[in-house]
Amino acid sequence: MFNLVLFGPPGSGKGTQSENIVTTYNLQHISTGDLLRDEVSRHTPLGTEAKKYMDQGMLVPDEVVIGMIDSKIDENPDARGFIFDGFPRTRNQAESLDKLLEFKNTSINLVLSLEVNETDLIKRLVLRGQTSGRSDDTEEVITKRIKEYHLKTQPVADYYETQGKLERVAGDNPIPETFKLLTKNINKYLLPVA
Ligand code: AP5
Predict the structure, then answer these.
(1) Ligand 1 within 6 A of 16 CB?
(2) Which position among 104, 128, 165, 168 bears the catalytic label?
(3) Is the entire prediction scored with pTM above 0.70?
(4) What residue ranges do the domains of the chain occupy?
(5) What tens digit of pLDDT does each residue of 109-166 get?
(6) 109: helix, coil or strand?
(7) What CA–CA distance (Å, rounded) separates 174 from 116?
């Protein structure tokens, strides 16, 4: 099994690149943002609670997202591997993921960090906000999401760097070029299926 974390700030292209990676390597995509938005749209108790944090650009409490990940992994016992998009986002989530995977006799193989400057991130998300309908794609909330990233999520990169699993990839090129850079790293571990 091959497990990949696609890491980076809001708007760095994690969701966009995940779609390409999933098709090319036949991995199971787990996006905590998508899972949470699904809960919100179905007005579940979890979704109602999560929305309060998401609308303010703040991270949802760790225990909520860790529980979602656990069930999602168990739903896909035959997966070739997983691509974690938007998770882990705190050191506590990263440590919990390691424990969870160890319990399932697997581990994180590679963490690819998409590096994009802040001006471009804001531009991309404001542009997407014109059509996405996402309540957190306003300039005010985007700024808060980026602050939250620097405060709570960036330490996760150090966590994986210490383990020798982190590779930084330029994310400010056009989408196909960024994809090529990502595949260069993944190909060292896994052959494409498409
Ligand atoms: P989440 O949904 O994970 O959002 P995010 O990480 O803040 O950022 P995005 O998904 O908006 O960006 P992305 O990096 O995927 O970029 P994308 O490919 O979409 O989280 C939302 C909220 O949920 C959080 O704020 C939090 O409240 C909660 N949450 C989620 N996970 C959590 C967790 N683990 N713990 C706690 N809370 C959690 O691209 C963005 C735009 O840029 C698109 O329009 C795209 O077309 C464009 N684009 C992409 N690549 C390029 C390129 N190379 N050039 C030009 N444009 C590009």
Answers:
(1) yes
(2) 128
(3) yes
(4) 2-27+79-186
(5) 999 999 999 999 999 999 999 999 999 999 999 999 999 999 999 999 999 999 999 9
(6) coil
(7) 12
